[in-house]
Specification:
- There is one protein chain.
- The protein is α+β, with helices and mostly antiparallel strands.
- The protein folds into three domains: 8-122, Orthogonal Bundle (Butyryl-Coa Dehydrogenase, subunit A, domain 1), CATH 1.10.540; 128-228, Beta Barrel (Butyryl-CoA Dehydrogenase, subunit A, domain 2); 238-382, Butyryl-CoA Dehydrogenase, subunit A, domain 3.
- It has ten helices and eight strands.
- The protein has helices spanning 12-38, 43-52, 70-83, 85-104, 109-122, 242-264, 278-307, 316-341, 352-359, 369-386, and strands at residues 128-129, 147-151, 154-164, 172-179, 184-191, 196-199, 213-223, 227-228.
- The radius of gyration is 22 Å and the shape is globular.
- Residues 13-98 form the Acyl-CoA dehydrogenase/oxidase N-terminal domain.
- InterPro entries: Acyl-CoA_DH_C (IPR013107), Acyl-CoA_Oxase/DH_mid-dom (IPR006091), Acyl-CoA_Oxase/DH_mid-dom_sf (IPR046373), AcylCo_DH-like_C (IPR036250), AcylCoA_DH/ox_N (IPR013786), AcylCoA_DH/ox_N_sf (IPR037069), AcylCoA_DH/oxidase_NM_dom_sf (IPR009100).
- This is Acyl-CoA dehydrogenase family protein.
- Residues 244-362 form the Acyl-CoA dehydrogenase C-terminal domain.
């Protein structure tokens, strides 16, 4: 029987990419505990990904990228997270947003073309910094306290952003800001400069190496052409599946560790390893049910998004459900893995305790559980009204 993680590989090209990513994941796994303990940003991981071509996976082919599908992005991110969840989640924001920009064309062509060329040539990356301590997650509709004031040739941006993943390594990023004179909100592309500073606030229970520090902008200049309209094609937000893919990868790593442990560990009162015990087999079966169900939903949602381009906006509920099931089921899988391994799973010498901490971060990535359930309920109620 082949490995569970290979279940959704469809062809030789995908298998070749998967093998390359697994090689990176194995290297990152060896470094993960150090970065987790220190809360340090894994710069070498990103240098390795640039050299391996990972950062350009979602860049259009016309610029030298791979232009992979959402389905393939899910597969790659799951495998990378198998080695290091923090690195996978962090780079996922970059890869996912490039895919999003590719499909929506919401950026001016000149800026997107320039970004793609910089990714391929220099390993540049992008992320959007929108969360703030005062307004919370932008997915809940809060108005940013960061402001944009018009000046000669552009805008002066002032504010403080939280959860700014990849902040230690980005040379450019997008921020949301309120424009008082228009009573409106817009996004602005900012190039890192001396009016931008990083406050190293990221000291969390899990995902400790994502570099999600606070970014402070003190009248940082954004050129007139760097205001982003936000217009473009509605793609349903499929790119956000990079998030559940990451947590599935962590759960898969926990599952494999627990199974390997169960097959090898034999207490002196047993004739064979604990994998022969009915109770342990029951727990393994529960892990399989949770993990396989979640993976099926995520890969099916990604495939539908790839195939049904016209109906992408109507897939938001399915995409949200996939994320909901993947993150919650992954938490259950890691918990069961720790129960199988027992008290030693709490040891810092084992990766399970890191998996346990990292996987919980999925609850706080968009879309949030209550938002997904609200959307599903609205769909159900509107379905009756449609009759």
């Amino acid at each position: 029987m082949g490995r569970l993680i290979d279940q959704y590989i469809r062809n030789a090209e995908e298998r070749e990419r998967a093998e390359k990513v697994e090689a990176l994941a194995a290297i990152f796994a060896d470094r993960a505990s150090v970065h987790d303990r220190e809360g340090s940003f894994p710069h070498q991981n990103f240098a390795d990904m640039h050299e391996a071509g990972y950062l350009k996976l979602t860049v259009p082919k016309e610029f030298g990228g791979e232009e992979i599908s959402l389905y393939e992005l899910v597969s790659m991110q799951e495998r990378l997270a198998y080695g290091d969840g923090s690195t996978a989640l962090a780079v996922g924001w970059h890869l996912g947003q490039v895919l999003h920009l590719r499909t929506t064309r919401k950026w001016p062509g000149r800026l997107f073309d320039e970004l793609c060329r910089a990714i391929v040539a220099d390993g540049a990356m992008i992320n959007t910094f929108a969360s703030e301590s005062g307004s919370g997650s932008p997915s809940r509709g809060g108005k940013p306290e960061t402001t944009a004031i018009r000046t000669d040739g552009g805008w002066l941006i002032t504010g403080r952003k939280t959860f700014s993943t990849l902040s230690p390594i980005l040379d450019r990023f997008v921020v949301s800001a309120y424009i008082p004179e228009e009573d409106s909100t817009a996004d602005f592309l900012i190039y890192n400069n001396d009016r931008v500073s990083i406050i190293e606030t990221w000291d969390t229970i899990g995902m400790r190496a994502t570099g999600s520090h606070d970014v402070v902008l003190d009248r940082a200049f954004a050129a007139e052409g760097s205001r982003l309209s936000g217009k473009g094609i509605d793609d349903g937000g499929g790119w956000l599946l990079h998030i559940p893919a990451c947590y599935l990868g962590i759960a898969m790593a926990a599952r494999d560790f627990a199974i390997s442990f169960a097959q090898m560990y034999r207490p002196n009162h047993l004739q064979g390893p604990i994998a022969e015990l009915a109770t342990v087999q029951q727990s393994i079966g529960q892990m399989e049910a949770e993990l396989r169900t979640a993976r099926c939903l995520v890969y099916a949602a990604a495939d539908r998004w790839d195939q049904e381009k016209v109906s992408r906006p109507s897939l938001k509920s399915e995409l949200g459900l996939a994320k909901y099931m993947a993150t919650n089921n992954s938490i259950k899988v890691v918990d069961m893995a720790m129960r199988i391994v027992g008290g030693s799973s709490l040891s810092k010498k084992m990766p399970l305790e890191r998996f346990y901490r990292d996987v919980r971060a999925g609850l706080h990535n968009p879309p949030m559980d209550n938002m997904v359930l609200h959307t599903l309920a609205a769909d159900a109620l509107n379905e009756r009204n449609a009759d």
